[in-house]
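Bumping with the actual sequence this time:
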Amino acid sequence: MTRTDGWDPAQYNRFAAEREQPFWDLAHLLTPVEAPTVVDLGCGDGRLTALLHGELGASQTLGVDSSPAMIADSTAYSGDRVRFQLGDIGVWESPGDYDIVHANASLQWVPNHQLVLRRWTASLRPGGQLAVQVPSNADHPAHRLAVEMGSELLTDSPPDPVAQNVLAPEEYAALLDELGFTEQHVRLQVYLHRLPSTADVVEWVKGTSLTRFKEAFGDEGWPAFVDLYRSRLLALLGDRSPYLYTFKRILLWGRLS
């Protein structure tokens, strides 16, 4: 996964409580294992990775992320048994080394999920578990508007990774079965985020899906793009306080025999 680092840990964490809910819902799908080895792919700033390490009673935990800004912040959470490294989760593999491969809201950034999940599965030991959460919200007006504006304003607009890469829930279920997960759980869940206002949706996507536009517009053009996006989104959704931001996510878990 080759992308200019448009990530801002502070912006991302403006909605830390809301983003944590699916993280822990995913973690709670895991079956307890004594002192597992864990890898968290797309670990962000590492705060939740360190908490997951403690929650699972892990012997060793590795966090991997493609963002230098996020990895720089992760040093605050590293230790003897928790470490972090810069890396591309789309090509990451470590055959037979882990009891748990965990990826929360990161797989959508890479293409060819069939191939990627095959690599991740090969990184598990016998009886190992895979736990993945991906957004499935490409049809929300906030996401569709970003795609429309990118096509309108840029010659080569970055595509919406969710629309381009994320599979249907039933496709993930079939894939887990093909990969040898004799136990599995796959569900589509709608999360309800009660934001202070419609404008806060802009602040939300600035920390995630809009990051792909930062390189294209540059430091000078980026603020103007965000301002235009905000005005169009408010016209589209209405300037409401509070605003109910509905967000669909796919949670999938599997355990090898």
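The tokens above came from a reply further down the thread. The beta strands are 37-41, 60-65, 82-86, 98-104, 124-135, 181-195, 243-256.
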